[in-house]
Every structure is written in structure tokens, then in C-alpha cells.
Amino acid sequence: MEEANLKLKPLRDKNIEILSKLQRLNLEFQNLEDEEKRVKTDKDRLSKSQKTLTNDIDREKNIILEAKSNEKRLDEEKNVLINTEKKYYDLEKQTENDLQISTEELKKEQDKLEKVSKELIVSSNLDKDLDLLKNSLSYLEKSQQYMADGNIGDATNFIDKTRNNLKTIILNFENQISKNALEDFNELNNKIKIAQEKYANAFSKNQSIKSDSIKRQERIKNIDTEIQNWKNLKFNSEKMSRELDERINKVKIDLENIDKLPEQIAIKKGQLMQNTTDTESKKQELSEGLVTAEEEYQEINKELKIVENKMMSARESKARSGATLEGLENRKKDLINTLKIDLNIDENYLLDASDIKNLTDLPNVVEQEDKLDAKKNERDKLGAVNLRADEETEQYKVTIKKMEKDREDLVSAISKLRTSINELNQKGRERLLEAFEKVNKKFNDVYTKLFNGGTAKLEFVESDDPLEAGLEMLVSPPGKRLQSITLLSGGEQALTALSLVFAVFLTSPSPICVLDEVDAPLDDANVTRFCSLLEELTKITETKFIIITHHALTMSKMDRLYGVTMPEKGVSQLVSVDLQKAEDLVA
User: Fold this and answer.
1) pTM strictly above 0.70
2) Distance (Å, rounded) from C-alpha 53 to C-alpha 62?
């Protein structure tokens, strides 16, 4: 037996060692397959990120080109306006001179008209003509005042009235004045009309040139503002373009490193497969020797167990016989003592006191013990006399009445509680359904904004009662059919969960909202959508959002940043940056 055990132990140890090695090789092979899947996932993710960054770079380049083009166009427009302003400056001076000359000419002709009118008044004795001439003189003074104030329309009206009065006077004086005086008067009237037209044209031209000059000055100021805005946009786009170039270069390096990993993984898998094959061969050889040794050991062990069982059976039989004999002796002594104590019968007179006739026909022991127990039970059933039975009966009646009253109170309370519970359940169902409808509508709106399309809804499941039903989210991203959230990707699940959170938040907003690492599972494109949604929420609500994040894109969209640094070991320092003020300083 010892020889077989010594031969079997090294084989077992070697087998355990080979199994452990095989398990380790399988584990390494599984790790390599997991790493291969992870590499493939990382490669797809980096490819998508590279595509997104390329699109962003193209967009920023287009913005830079557009900014340069608009800046150049605005510079050219500004130069044209400045040159035009220089050209029209001399023209404006000329129009002012013309206006001054026209004013002087009109005033001179009006003075002549006034003089002729006075001569006509002297030569005429008609009161009516004198009144017309006085009115004409008054009209001329008013028109002169209006022209000085620049009110051409009113001055023209008074001059027309003066001309009409003069025509009337001319008709009345045709027989009283000479032909030369009448011709002078008509000529003077025509000159006044011509001077009036020259004055009106000069004044209109002067005002038009001034108005155009003011518009050009305002346009030049607006052009300067637009040029500065385009410069700021170009500066920000160039800065963003440089950052995107750095990021895409880093992504390209990561892609190059990932492209090398499959070959390395394949080499390692080949080596592991070879080691596994060799180990399997050794295990097979060892297993054959181990099976043979095990069979020999089992045969020897089987024979040994047979011998041990025989010896154990003999020892048990001996011990059992001795114990049985000792038990019978003790039982005999107990029975004799019981007879003496309970029945006062001596061992020698036992047959005389019993119903046994001879020793050859002994009754069954169990039957005799049953008879004895039946006699004892009959005696015990008689029991003792209870002298306080009436008092205890009265006490029990009082207790029963109190318990019945308590039972009625409990039944009434249970009924009231059930009524209250039913009312609370009804109100709870109504309020839950109302809140469900609001949240469901907001959920669909927020989901559509985050995914740029698609649909989303909430449904009760597992029960018709809203208070006991579960809640299932069914979403349909753009281009996909309606399905459960568990069938979506990690990023889509995160965005869908955010949609539900913001839907509940919009239904019942709070002053402060804390979001802890909610953008961790999102890529750059989805982070941009998330930040855009936050900007809309800050506009339509008065909530302050506190976001804990490690994502650079999320940080760039915030109004203020807070960070904790440790300039010295064991000493933390809080640092804050106001991004809006920083942008104003850069601008």
C-alpha cells in the first residue's frame, strides 16, 4: 500500500502542475482575445474621433477663409467709402457756396421787388391795390424769414401768394403805369422765381450730400466693428484649429500604435497555442500513467477496506452484545425496585400477585406496559378539585367583553384605514398619471434635441395599476426602430438617461443642479450636444448647474471653472477662472 502511494503521489503532483499550467495558458489566451476586442473597439472609436476632428478642422478652416474674405471685402468697402468721402468733401463745400450765392441773389431780388412795390404804391391811389402791396410785402418778409430758417416749403407758398398779388396789381395798374415799369415788374417777378428755384435746388443738393456723408460715416464705423468681429472670430478659429490639429495628431499616433498591436497579439497567441499543445501532450502521457497507478491503488485500497470492514463488524457485534446484556440487567433491577416501591410486592412472590399461570407462557412486555400506562392515566384524569372556578369564570367573562369591545374598535379602525388608503391611492394615481404625462412629453422633447431627431416615450409595464407598475423606456434613435434602452450602445444609454433626468428636472426645476461625471461615457460629438442642451436649459430656467467633469470640451463650454491644486504636499488650494471675462480680455 505504501509503495503504491509513493508511486502515485509524484504523478498526482505532476498532473496538478500541468493542469495549473493549462489553466494559466487558457487564461492568458482569453486575456489576449479580450485585448484584441478592446483594440478593435479602441480603433473604431479613434477612427470616429479622427473623422469628427477632421470635419471640425475643415469647418474651422472654412470659418477662417470666410473671415479673411469678409475682412478683405470690408477693407475694400471702407477704402471706397473713404475715397468717396474725400471726393464729396469738395462737392459739399461747392454746394454750400452755391447755396449762399442763391440766398444772396434771392434776397437781392426780393429787395428790388420791395423797392418797385413801394414805387407802385406811391404812383397808385387805390386803397385796394395798396392793401395788396402791403400784404405782398408782408409775404416777402415771411418768406425771407422762412428761407433763413431753411423752411423752403413755407417760403415758396408765401412767394406764390406774393406773385399772385403782384399779378392782380399789374392788371389793375395797366392803365395807370407805363409799359416799361410793367415790364420791369414782370421781369423782376420772373427773376425772383428763378432765384427761388436755384435756392431750392442748391439747398436740396446740399442736404442730400450731408445726409449721404453721415450715412457713409456710420457705415465706416459699422465696417470697423464688423472687421474687428471677423478678426476675433478668425483668432478663435485659428486657436481652435491648432488645438484640433494637436488632438488629431495624437489620435493618429494612437492609431499607429493600435495598428501594431494585432500583429503582436497574434504572435503571443501563436506562442500560447504552441505551449498549450505541448502541455496537452504531456498531460495525455501523464494521464495514462496516472490512470494505471490509480487503478492499482484502488484495487489495494478496496481489499484493505474489505478487511477493515470485517474487523469493524466483529468489534461492533461484541460491543453490542455486551451493551445489551448490561441493559437487561439494569432493566431487571429497575423493575424489581418499582415493584417494591409502587406495589409492595417481593420478587419471590411476583407470580402469585400476577395473572401469569406458568413461566413457560409469558405475556408480551409491551402489552403489560400499555396496561400499566392506561391505569395511570385513568387515575390522573380524576385530577384535583378547583375551589376558585366561579371567580375565574367571572374574570374570564370580563376579559372576553373587553376583548370583544377592542375587536370592534379594531374593525372600525381597519375600515377607516382602508378608506383612507383607497383615497390616497386614487389621488396618488391621478397625480402620478399627470406627472407621467408631463415627464413623457418633456422626455420626448429633450431626447429629440440630444439626438437631432428620433422619438422616445415611457410606458407602464407589469401591471395596469400605475402605483404597482414598472417603468419602461422605449426609444428610437434616428434611423433605428423603436426598442428598449437595454439594446442601445453605452453612449446612447447615457444620453437617454440624461434625457429622462432633464425631463424630470424641467417638469419640477430646482435652484441648483449637480451633475457628477455624466459626460464620462460620451464621445466628443455627444458631449457637444450635451453642452448645447445645458446652454438652452440655462436660458429657459434660473437654475445654476454645477458639473463635475474631466472632459476638456465640457470645461470649455462652462461660464466659470473651479479646480483644486496641491502646490505643496498636504496643502490644497481652490482655483477659479471666469471664462466670460477671459474671452472679453482676449477680445
Assistant:
1) no
2) 14
